[in-house]
Design brief:
alpha+beta; three-stranded antiparallel beta sheet; two-stranded antiparallel ribbon; globular
């Protein structure tokens, strides 16, 4: 029998736990209501670009330290953006739960958007968009979404459009973060 509990903290944050006493590892995640559906048409792709930028440093940690702290304990950390949410997650041994929580909280709450890193990640995302255009499944699914939800946020591609992602300003990324991650 599963031991799933949902609690709400004083700040409104919902915490869902699924306790499995025989398991030695822990998977932790933060889901932010900041997917494509929350983007304006002129910043389509900002949620996904921000997801990349979140890992590029915080007020306390460099990009390298974010990765190394989790990897040093044999863990992994990653993220994904969907139409509804952007999720950040880590998997570590249960003794390393405090570290993983600290790193996840830090990247979600204290990310910095450095101009140099933004240029690099923008290039990475533009490559991802190009790859998606060469992947039939992605093309068909994006076409399906745009047909099912014309002129609506859910009809726009999660990765964004090259011409928009290529011109997103640092201010628009920080503005989206400040609106949806606080």
């Amino acid at each position: 029998m599963r031991d799933i509990q949902i609690s709400t903290l004083a700040n409104g944050l919902r915490v869902v736990t699924d306790r499995m006493p025989t398991v030695e590892s822990v998977s932790l995640g933060v889901w932010v209501r900041a997917g494509t559906r929350y983007e304006l048409p002129q910043v389509n792709g900002v949620a996904h670009l921000l997801e990349h930028m979140i890992f590029k440093g915080t007020e306390r940690r460099s990009a390298r330290e974010i990765a190394e702290e989790i990897e040093a304990v044999g863990g992994s950390i990653n993220a994904y953006t969907s139409r509804e949410t952007t999720a950040y997650y880590a998997k570590v041994l249960k003794d390393d739960t405090p570290l993983a929580l600290d790193v996840l909280a830090d990247i979600v709450q204290h990310s910095v958007v450095d101009d140099v890193e933004l240029g690099r990640e923008r290039s990475v995302v533009l490559q991802e968009i190009g790859q998606a255009h060469d992947t039939p499944d992605d093309v068909v699914f994006d076409h399906f979404q745009s047909t099912a939800f014309p002129d609506q946020p859910l009809g726009r591609p999660v990765l964004g459009k090259s011409e928009i992602v290529g011109s997103l300003s640092r201010d628009s990324i920080v503005g989206f973060r400040d609106e949806h991650y606080r």
